[in-house]
Amino acid sequence: MNQSTPLLATAADHWAALRCQSAATLSLASDLSAQGVVGWSPAMAVRFRLPRGRRTALKTVPLMPSFVFVPYAAADIAVDLGRSGRVPRNWPFLFNGDRPALPVEQLLAMNAGERSKSGDLYKPGDKVRFVVGPFHGIAGTILKKQGRDRWLVDVNGARLLVPSFLIRPESVSSPKS
Question: Were both Cys, which of 13, 18, 24, 165 would link to 90 (CB 3.0–4.6 Å)?
Answer without folding.
Answer: 18
